[in-house]
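[retry 2/3] 2,3-bisphosphoglycerate-dependent phosphoglycerate mutase: previous attempt timed out, resubmitting with same input.
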Amino acid sequence: MPTLILLRHGQSQWNLENRFTGWVDVDLTTEGEAQARRGGELMAEQGLLPDEAFTSVQTRAIRTCNLALDAARRSWIPVTKDWRLNERHYGGLTGLDKTETARLHGEEQVKVWRRSYDTPPPPLEAGSEHDLSGDPRYAGATVPATESLKLTLERVLPYWTSAIAPRLKADKTVLVAAHGNSLRAIVKHLFQVADDRIVGVEIPTGNPLVIELNADLQPVSARYLDEGRAQALPEIAA
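[retry 2/3] 2,3-bisphosphoglycerate-dependent phosphoglycerate mutase: success.
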């Protein structure tokens, strides 16, 4: 049975500081490192040993992947990095304090920007401090100025179809260590979550979400390995 393990990166410095991060390359905190290691320990304890792993090109996800695999004694498996698994781009909100942004623009407006499916935040100004158009990681790619979850899904899904799904169809156990929104995009696709319900799906940091799939890559079961930090999961179709 194909097994998919989704692992959101451990707590980052900007998670701790309550700032919109998006594509900015922020590292893990000490707590985030511990969460990543614990995620790997949980995988090993339950015999969930990945054959292959995929991650983004952002440090917090890469280090989470490496720390988890090391803890699971699987650091030797192939790991593929791709920008299409990056976090959602938060546009003009990037770097801002979330509480202060809510005070300036109103909590309802910020909730729409953060949690709605298809309404992106204002775009990031070209040439600004967080403009990554010249970053060598994105050579040949079109760096977005802002993204909604819908736009995030539109870049994640082709990569899922071309790179990740074939490995699962080969009956592999696959780890995807990425970000809250790129993983929510995968969850939305797999569980066919309605646009207005995906807002309620949250993936905790550093807690492996194990999804067993059938031959058609439809979910058969799903569970978090750390039950004490679990979040509600979408229903699995009968």
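[retry 2/3] 2,3-bisphosphoglycerate-dependent phosphoglycerate mutase: The chain has a mean pLDDT of 95.
[retry 2/3] clearing retry counter.
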